Sequence to fold (361 residues):
Amino acid sequence: MKKFIYEKPINVYFESTIACDLKCKHCRAEAIPERSPLELKTEEVKNLMDDIKDMGSHLVISGGDPLKREDLFELLQYAKNIKLPVAVTPTTSPLATYEKIKKMKELSIYALGISLDGPDRSAQDSFRGVEGTFENSMSVLNYARELSIPVQINTTCTGETISRLKEIYYLLLKNFSPPVKRWSIFFLVPVGRGSELELPSKKEIEDLFLFLYEKSKEAPFHITTTEAPFYKVFYFLKEMEKGEKFEEIIADSRKMGLGVRDGNGVIFVSYRGDIYPAGFLPLKLGNVRENKLSYVYKNHEILKDLRNTELLKGKCGICYFKDICGGSRARAFAMKGDYLEEDPVCIFEEEFLKKLKAKFF
Fold:
């Protein structure tokens, strides 16, 4: 099977700050209300932007809450000047006003990322730890619709939230398509505050996958998963059961991001400038204050290992689909202490995986 290796990052995720006014149950960064003096300075961020531009990648400015940085709009202006494509994922706190979202639009961001973890006030506000968060999310979605800004909705999938994900889909379908262009379901990686949360059961995940597969055929926005790459296997199997050819499914599935993602098409830079394969995989590779991100991405041995699916262990290692999936390397590290181990949450059993090749190939 073809190896999906990305010679440059498609997306560089920059954790611009860990300052945030929310208290989310799953927070990877364990955010705090105030900015850290260790954050990259304005000129250091601009140097990083130059490197990202040279690589031909996109920049996603996240946090914490990017709106806690006083220089955010200066950075967006710089990105516009150098023609670097930028998306921003603000938290839906009261800081996300219409005026600020409008200014982002004027500075040519290509998308907003908005978190929505519940279909109503009770569910969203409880998960995000601050009253009013659901109403703020609805307001920002309305701003984006009025301003014609494409939106990616990010929904965290845990044992607590999974039962109401279908309701979120119908909320978006009824009220926000457009501006929603993509709905991404982030499956819990138990790090940071998220280490206290429960993972969904395999039965719950399989039921959700069936729903996502069915709705992907009719939804007006793209549906995808993050840190659940085995959804791609589920999707491929459903297509092949209908008689579709494997090669044709691959050709039609590029938007799914085939292959291992952590450190392969995706790279993460922390507020301190530390480089990681992804936000949920805390393996420090270097620091942009000392090494260019582009150099680290091309040359670091851990990243070479992550892109080599022949090194995968357990059922990830024997799976015929490992080159299009590869499992969540972040979850393997968080739960097994080895970034090459099998993904503990994958819904497919080893015996089933052994039979796949004989059945379809």
